[in-house]
Structures are given as C-alpha cells and as structure tokens.
Amino acid sequence: LFTEVLLDCHVGDHKARHHFLRSASEYYERFVGLMGRDEGLRDADFFMCGEPVLFCRLLSYFGQPVIGYISTPISVYVGKEDRAEWYQQFYEMALDPRHIFATTTPIFNEWVVYATGIDLPVVRPICTYTEA
Q1: Exposure letters 37-60 (e unless 16+ CB within 10 A, then b)
Q2: Crossing angle (nearest 10°) for helices 80-95 and 106-116
Q3: Is the distance from CB of 62 to CB of 103 less than 8 angstroms?
Q4: Which of 5, 15, 24, 56 is 20 to 30 A distant from 32 in Cα terms?
Q5: How far apart are CA 79 and CA 87, in angstroms?
Q6: 71: helix, coil or strand?
Q7: Predicted local confidence at residue 7, as pLDDT
Q8: In 10 A of CB 62, how many CB atoms?
Q9: Euclidean distance between CA atoms 105 and 99, whole angstroms
Q10: What is the DSSP secondary structure assignment for residue 24, as one 8-state letter?
C-alpha cells in the first residue's frame, strides 16, 4: 500500500526517496479489515500513538480515547491527494473530548495550526536519563 517517490527537489548525490500511502482511505479500510475484530484492541481502555500521526486515526476506530504525542508533521506518509481529507479527519479527532493531543515542539504545533487551525499544547520531551 506504499509507494516510493523520488522528490524533484533532491538533486545530485542527495536523491532521497520518500514513502507515501497510495491511498490513506484504503490503508484505513485494510487496517479495519485486519484488526477491527481483535479482542485485545477492542478491550483496551485507551490508545497511545505518535508517529506517523495517521496511526492515531486507525486506533480511533475502536472508540476509546486516543492520546497522541506528535513529533512529526501530521502529513507524514499521506500523499498530497489525501491530505485535505486527512486534515479534516485529524481536526475532528482533535476536537473530540475523548482524545488528547500534544506536540513535542512549537514548529510541529505550527504545522498542525497551519493544516487544521487547531492550536495544540506543546509538551517538550524531557530526557533525564541522558544526564545532559
């Protein structure tokens, strides 16, 4: 369900390939078909998601609270032809009082604001185990 794309903006020795879903809705339907009846998932009290943010939508299928900690642009893996619909779906999820979303940095929050108009809280990661 993924396609590899060589972006025109990458030239010379820096030709990076990026992966996008061929169809975000097809991916969602495939997930529901494969996992929708899983009793372990159906019995969960809540779900946590992060990267890619589209997985938060997959988990919302089960009707339980979704806690999303966003550390990438919300459009990662979503092709341009699916982005408007995905942004609307994320908007609706973010406004649902069952769900909680936060971003790791102000720039990721600005991307969410730009795409959806929703201003999420920024909760910076704290890595006390690094002793830095």
Answers
A1: eeeeeeeeeebebeebbbbbbbbb
A2: 100
A3: no
A4: 5
A5: 12
A6: coil
A7: 63
A8: 18
A9: 19
A10: H
Using an 8 Å Cβ cutoff, are 19 and 5 in contact? yes
| Residue 66 bridge partners (DSSP) | 47
C-alpha to C-alpha distance for 50 and 73, rounded to whole angstroms: 11
CB 93 within 8 A of CB 60: yes
Question: What is the reported pTM?
Answer: 0.81
- How far, CA to CA in Å, does 29 sit from each of 11, 94, 116? 36, 21, 23
Question: Which residues neighbour 22 within 8 Å (Cβ) at sequence distance 6 or greater?
Answer: 1, 2, 3, 79
Residue 50 neighbours by CB under 8 Å, 6+ apart = 68, 69, 70, 71, 72
Tens digits of residue pLDDT in 60-104: 999 999 999 999 889 888 988 999 999 999 999 999 999 999 999
